[in-house]
Design brief:
With about 190 residues, the protein is an alpha+beta fold. The protein folds into 2 domains: about 80 residues, no CATH class; about 100 residues, no CATH class. Helices cover about 20% and strands about 35% of the residues. Strand 2 and strand 3 form a beta hairpin. The relative contact order is 0.16.
């Protein structure tokens, strides 16, 4: 887990959530994701400690909302997600990651297909802090559903939850730009 990558996400989203799940586990939230940060960091509380850990200047930190006590292991604040790995009451789905991604307006959008064919989109920038963990043979993405039946992505390394990511909401503007790209690709596609 790279702190510099989390700091980049914090600067991009303008928000950091300090999520203490118990006495020795911390997740850092950045907009629509929460990433495990303990084992490499002390417990963090307050704007000043967040600024030091994320290595941000005072000017950069002034543009960031800091949310403390943003949740527990079974409920992370605004995202309403459960980070407990062995919760028998939580339903999880296996997913298949679609092999291609699209970058529109600097946002990388990946797609996951659930077992029933449903597709979820997510901003794969939120996986950047876990670049090393993605090399693990035990790294996997799964999907869970919160109490309001909204799905979210859970990132595992073995049996441990490394992150949770909310799906990306794609706008009409996104689809228009993507359609324009696909039309251009069709013009250069080799004809067999």
């Amino acid at each position: 887990m790279k702190i510099s990558k989390i700091a980049k996400l914090v600067k991009k989203t303008g928000c950091v959530q300090l999520i203490r799940v118990d006495a020795d586990k911390v997740y850092l939230g950045a907009g629509g994701a929460a990433v495990y940060a303990t084992g490499r960091l002390p417990l963090i509380s307050g704007r000043d400690q967040a600024q030091i850990i994320l290595d941000l200047t005072r000017e950069q930190m002034e543009k960031v909302d800091v949310v403390e006590d943003a949740g527990t292991i079974t409920h992370i604040g605004l995202m309403d997600i459960n980070m407990k790995a062995d919760d028998k009451e939580v339903v999880e789905w296996e997913v298949q990651r679609i092999e291609a991604a699209a970058i529109v307006d600097g946002r990388v959008v990946d797609l996951l297909e659930l077992e029933d064919g449903e597709i979820l989109s997510f901003n794969s920038d939120f996986l950047m802090p876990l670049k090393e963990e993605q090399q693990s043979p035990y790294f996997k993405l799964r999907v869970r559903e919160n109490d309001e039946h909204k799905k979210y992505i859970v990132v595992y390394d073995g049996l441990f939850i490394m992150a949770a990511i909310m799906p990306t909401v794609l706008t009409d503007d996104y689809f228009k730009k993507l359609d324009k790209f696909l039309q251009a690709v069709d013009k250069i596609r080799p004809q067999n």
